[in-house]
Specification:
Blueprint lengths: L1 H11 L24 E7 L5 E5 L8 E5 L3 E6 L2 E2 L5 E2 L12 E6 L3 H4 L1 E8 L5 E11 L2 E2 L5 E7 L10 E3 L5 E5 L21 E5 L28 E4 L6 E4 L6 E5 L5 E6 L11 E2 L2 E2 L17 E4 L6 E6 L12 E5 L4 E7 L4 E9 L4 E6 L5 E5 L3 E7 L3
Antiparallel strand pairs: 1-28, 2-3, 3-4, 4-5, 4-6, 7-8, 8-9, 9-10, 9-11, 12-13, 13-14, 14-15, 16-17, 17-18, 18-21, 19-20, 22-23, 23-24, 24-25, 26-27, 27-28
Length: 389
C-alpha cells in the first residue's frame, strides 16, 4: 500500500517522496557552514568491501557487499562470520568487476526480496542484475536467483554497479559506458544501448516477455530507436549515486577520465554529456570544440590531480550530527579525501574538504536512521561523527 501511494504521488510531482521512516534533521537550524568530521571505526576484517546499506526492516543491521561475491551483516558493530549471501561461484571479480551493490525491496520485511548487481564471465563478460530471496533472518539462498537483466560488457572497466530503489518504488540502475578510453562505441550518446545510462525499472511488474516492467513515465517509452529502460544518459562510470532522504533529489558522482571528476543531479530524460564532454570541458581526445547544446552540466567538478576517482555519497539527513544537516558528503578513492557541499537546487553555495583519510573510499553508506558511513576498500567500515566526539 505504501509503495502504491509513493508511485501515485511521484507520478503527480516528480521525486516528491513520502517522509522518511526515520526522523529527518532540520536544515533550517544550520548556519550554512559545513562542520569538520571524524571517522569512527565500527568494524573490520572485511575483504574488499564496496557497498553498504540497510534492509529497511527495522533490524538496525548493516549489509556490506564484498567484491568477491559475498554480502556480510554487521549488527551492533559485530561482523557475522557467515555471509548473508555467497555467490562467488558466478561472480567475476577484480579491478572494477565483481559483486558491486545490493538493494532491498521496499517491502523486504514482508517479501524477503533483494537485488544485486554483479559481473560474470559465464557466456562472456556481462553485468547481471538479479533478484534473490532470504531463507531465514540472516541468510539468503544462492539458488533463489532470478535474473532480471543481462548487459554485455565490451571491456572489463566502467561497470557502474549501483542499484537503489527510488522514493517512487522503482529500481534505478547505474550503467557505465562499457569501458576502454573515450567511449569508442559512443555508448554514452546512444539510446539503443543500456550502457552509459541510468536505468529505471519496475521489479513488481513481471511479464511473459521479461522479468520486470517499464514505468509508463520513463522518458523514452515507445520512442523509436531507444531503450524503454533509460531514465537519463550521457554517463561514463556512475559508480555511486543516492537519493536525498528529505526531497528525493538524485545525486550521482560520475568518475572522470583524465581531467575532471563530476557530480550531477539526475533528472528524467537529461543528457549528461559523455563522451562529448568530460565534466565541464569538451573531452580533449574526442573533440576540443564540442557542441554543448542540449547537455546538462554538472553541479560541481574538481580537476585531477585534486582527485582521480570520485566516490559519490549522500546528503546527511540524520539527527545525531545537526550541524551537518543538508550537506552532501562525497570522497575520492585515490586521493583518499572527503568533502562536503551544499546545493540549494540551483547552485552549490558552499564546499570544503572535511578530511584527508588513510582509507581507499570505495563507497559511502546510510543506515535506517540516516547516519552515514565510509566503506574502506581495505576492509574497514567507519561511521561519520562530529569531530569533537
Amino acid at each position: 500500500m505504501i509503495k502504491s501511494l509513493r508511485r501515485l504521488l511521484c507520478g503527480l510531482i516528480l521525486f516528491s517522496p513520502l517522509p522518511a521512516l526515520a526522523a529527518v534533521c532540520d536544515e533550517t537550524k544550520t548556519d550554512g557552514s559545513i562542520p569538520s568530521i571524524r571517522l569512527k571505526e565500527i568494524a573490520g576484517g572485511l575483504r574488499e568491501p564496496v557497498h553498504l546499506t540497510h534492509a529497511g526492516d527495522g533490524s538496525r543491521r548493516l549489509f556490506v557487499v564484498e567484491q568477491q561475491g559475498t554480502i556480510r551483516i554487521i549488527k551492533n558493530n559485530t561482523l557475522d562470520p557467515t555471509p548473508f549471501l555467497d555467490i562467488r561461484d558466478r561472480v567475476s571479480s577484480g579491478g572494477e568487476k565483481g559483486l558491486l551493490s545490493v538493494a532491498f525491496h521496499p517491502e523486504y520485511k514482508n517479501n524477503g526480496l533483494f537485488y544485486v548487481n554483479y559481473t560474470t564471465r559465464q557466456n562472456g563478460l556481462q553485468t547481471i542484475v538479479a533478484e534473490f530471496k532470504r531463507t531465514s533472518v540472516n541468510r539468503a539462498s544462492p539458488a533463489s536467483q532470478k535474473i532480471l537483466l543481462k548487459v554485455r560488457q565490451p571491456w572489463g572497466n566502467h561497470n557502474g554497479g549501483q542499484l537503489a530503489f527510488g522514493p517512487d518504488g522503482y529500481l534505478y540502475i547505474g550503467m557505465g559506458d562499457g569501458g576502454a578510453a573515450n567511449d569508442p562505441h559512443d555508448n554514452g550518446q546512444r539510446l539503443t544501448t543500456l550502457l552509459g545510462a541510468m536505468l529505471r525499472i519496475d521489479v513488481d511488474d513481471k511479464t511473459p516477455s521479461r522479468s520486470y516492467g517499464i514505468p509508463s513515465d520513463n522518458p523514452f517509452v515507445r520512442q523509436a530507436n531507444a531503450r524503454d529502460e533509460i531514465w537519463a544518459y550521457g554517463l561514463r562510470n556512475p559508480w555511486r549515486f543516492s537519493f536525498d532522504a528529505a526531497n528525493g533529489v538524485l545525486y550521482l558522482a560520475d568518475v572522470g577520465q583524465n581531467r575532471i571528476e563530476e557530480i550531477d543531479i539526475i533528472e528524467k530524460g537529461h543528457n549528461y554529456g559523455w563522451n562529448i564532454m568530460e565534466g565541464n570541458i569538451c573531452t580533449p581526445d574526442v573533440n576540443r570544440q564540442c557542441d554543448r547544446s542540449g547537455l546538462t552540466a554538472p553541479i560541481f567538478v574538481y580537476p585531477q590531480p585534486e582527485g582521480f576517482s570520485i566516490t559519490g555519497g549522500f546528503v546527511y539527513r540524520g539527527t545525531k550530527f545537526p550541524a551537518l544537516c543538508g550537506t552532501y558528503i562525497y570522497g575520492d578513492y585515490v586521493a583518499k579525501k572527503i568533502w562536503g557541499l551544499h546545493y540549494d537546487g540551483k547552485k552549490v553555495t558552499n564546499q570544503r574538504q572535511l578530511a584527508k583519510s588513510r582509507y581507499s573510499i570505495s563507497s559511502f553508506g546510510q543506515d535506517e536512521v540516516l547516519e552515514l558511513y565510509v566503506v574502506d576498500h581495505g576492509g574497514k567500515i567507519l561511521k561519520i561523527v562530529a569531530a569533537e566526539n
